[in-house]
Amino acid sequence: MKSLFGKLADGTKVHRWSLENGGTRLKVLNWGGVVQGLEIPDRHGHYTNVALGFDNIDDYVAKTPYFGALIGRYGNRIAKGQFTLDGKSYQLSVNDGVNSLHGGKQGFDKHIWDVEPFAKGSDVGLVLHYTSIDGEMGYPGTLKAKVTYTLTRHGDWIIDYEATTDKATVVNLTSHVYWNLAGEGSGTVEDHELTIAAGRYTPTDTGLIPTGELAKVSGTPFDFRKTKTIGRDIRDGHVQQVQAKGYDHNWVLDKGITSKPEHVATLREPRSGRTLKIATDQPGLQFYSGNFLDGTLTGTGGRTYRQGDALCLETQHFPDAPNHPNFPSTVLRPGQTYRTRTVHTFGA
Ligand code: GLA
Q1: Confidence tier at 148 by pLDDT (50, 70, 90)
Q2: Domain 2-347 carries which CATH code?
Q3: Stated pTM of the model
Q4: 3-state SS of the chain?
Q5: 156 CA distance to ligand 1 middle (Å)
Q6: pLDDT by residue (tens digit) across 160-194?
Q7: Which residue has its alpha carbon closest to ligand 1 atom 2?
Q8: pLDDT in the model for residue 55
Q9: Ligand 1 lined by 178 (C-beta under 6 Å)
Q10: Does ligand 1 lie within 6 Å of residue 76's CB atom?
C-alpha cells in the first residue's frame, strides 16, 4: 500500500509504502529508503513499533540522526574525509568534525530513491534504486545502488545490497535502524540483553576513528560473547566508552566475511519477550547505544528520545577501512558487483 507522506520544499512527493508478511509490518519511505516504522508482536500478540522515526518529512530532511535510513556510500567514518586509491587522493564531504560520516553532508539517507514493490512466491518487498553520480560527496565513479527489502512469510526482514561502479571506488552500505524492542519512545534500552559473536573490536581515537588495532574484548565491557544487558557494563569507565559516551564501536565478527549470512547477534527485551536475531555475510557490526540522542527529537509516538533510548546494530565493513590496509578491503572496481545480505529474524 502506497500513501503520500509529505512533500519536499521543491514540491517533490515523498511516499510511504506499508508492507506486511509473516507477522511483521514494515513502513518505508522513498526518502533515504527510511524504515519509518517496524511493528512486531510481543509474546501475547500485541503489536508495537520497535523502530525510532519521525512522523513528518521535514524532520527527516532537517535532522540527521539517520533514523531507519539507508547509509551510503560509506557507512561510518572516514578520517578527515580522505583516502588514496590507485595512487589518487580523494577529498570527501566532511560532516562530523574533521571527518566524513555516513557518506558526507548529503549521503544516501538524504536522497529520493526509486521504489518498486514486488511479490514473489510467499515473499513481498520493495526494490529501491539510487544512482550516485561521479564525484558526488567526493567519491569517484558513478555508483548504481540497488537495495531490496524482503519480508518473508516467516516475518523475516532481509536486506540485499548491490552496487556497481564505472571507476574504482570504495563502498560500504548499511541500514541505520534504531531498535527499542519494548517500543519506540518507551524509554531506555539498558535492560535489553545482547549477544555478539565477536572476540575483538576496533578501538577508536577521540574522533571515533579506528586506531587500526583489533583489540580483544575479553576482560572489557566490550565482551558480549555471553549474553548480558546493555546497561550492565555501560558505566564501567573504560576509556573507549568514555570517549564514545557509551558503545559506538565496530565489533570484528568471529566468522569474518562469509559467502552466506551467518548469525552474529541476538537482542532480547525481557518484558515483552521480543527478540531480534541478525545474520550477515559482512565482517563487522557497529553497535551504537544511542549516545547522541539528547531529548531534543520527538518521535512518531509523540515522545522525545533521550540518550540510550534505542540502539543500532549496523552490519558493515570496518569504519575507515580505506585508510587501514589491515582491514578487509572496501574497494569496488568496474566490472565487479558489490553484493551483501543482512537478515533480521524476529521472535517473541
Ligand atoms: C553511527 C555512528 C555514531 C553516530 C550515529 C548517528 O552509529 O557510529 O557515532 O554518528 O551513527 O548519530
Answers
A1: very high
A2: 2.70.98.10
A3: 0.98
A4: CEEEEEECCCCCEEEEEEEEECCEEEEEECECCCEEEEEEECCCCCEEECECCCCCHHHHHHCCCCCCEEECCECCEEHHHEEEECCEEEECCCCECCEEECCCCCCHHHCECEEEEEEECCEEEEEEEEEECCCHHHCCCCEEEEEEEEECCCCCEEEEEEEEECCCEECECEEECCECCCCCCCCCCCCCEEEECCCEEECECCCCCECCCCEECCCCCCCCCCCEECCCCCCCCCHHHHHHCCCEEEEECCCCCCCCCEEEEEEECCCCCCEEEEEECCCEEEEECCCCCCCCEECCCCCEECCCCCEEEEEECCCCHHHCCCCCCCEECCCCCEEEEEEEEEEC
A5: 25
A6: 999 999 999 999 999 999 999 999 999 999 999 99
A7: 76
A8: 98
A9: no
A10: yes
